[in-house]
Amino acid sequence: MNRKQWINVLxxxxxxxxxxxxxxxxxxxxLLFTLQNAHPTWLAAALVMMILGVVIRAFRWQILLTAIGxxxxxGELTAIYFIGFLFNNLLPSGLGGDAMRMxxxxxxxxxxxxxxxxxxxxxxxxxxxxxxxxxxxxxTNWGAVPNGVAYFTIVIFMGxxxxxxxxxNRPLYTNLRQKIGLxxxxxxxxxxxSTFESFHRYPLPxxxxxxxxxxxxxxxxxxxxxxxxxxxxxPVNLAQYAVIVPIxxxxxxxxxxxAGLGVREEAxxxxxxxxxxxxxxxxxxxxxxHIIGNICxxxxxxxxxxxxxxxxxxxxxx
Length: 318
Hints:
By secondary structure, the chain is mainly alpha-helical. 81% of the residues lie in helices and 0% in strands. It has 14 helices and no strands. It is globular and about 55 Å long. Residues 313-318 have low confidence and may be disordered.
């Protein structure tokens, strides 16, 4: 096996080890009882929120693509998003879906750079909007979460804010590269330089519109989490969800496990445990988030992917 395959195997091992540790340190019977007694109405509502969120994210992506002259129908972008969820479940990385989105979008644009930049910008705007909501929730409900979580949220937001200013301000970016050697060396890293170049292609009005849509999406996203929490009667309020959801979302981007399994469960156990949620309820919560947020949407993506394949076969036969 090559290096990439070994890394993927390692991610699977990390997930298995983490899950084994978690299940060996909680009451599994209590976990199963919690899952069995989850309120189905709230779970159905959470699934509706998840599907609505996919459509909103596709609309945000459409705004960005239109700004660089790549018009793609909203229905097509929504389908591509669902296909992305399918590959998030198949590839050992939370970013696998992004790679598939790029592949699918390449069918609509001859320029590979269009697909890469739009996905990178789309991802950043979503995460920064989520952090902005977390900051507002934190400042208006100080004490809702432990101080360590609160300060971590502030640091992450400030980092995102500084990064965002550099991403949209080319003169400032160029000036810092010329005057600060460390900044120049950091931005010489291919991924970082590509991210900066991606943002510099988009006009500010398009970025502003996409950010506003990101705010709407993340309210829906947090509501999905809240509905799942309601299904378990978890003692968590909306402000706490608004602060904790962004942290878990960031952790899941770290590519050290398969589809976030293990990392998600431990993050939920640690973070929600600090605000009074029992370990079994926190782990049940994380598993339901994975089922609704990844598996259900991945199944929808699988159906779409199979239908596309069938349509291509029919077209070739004709």
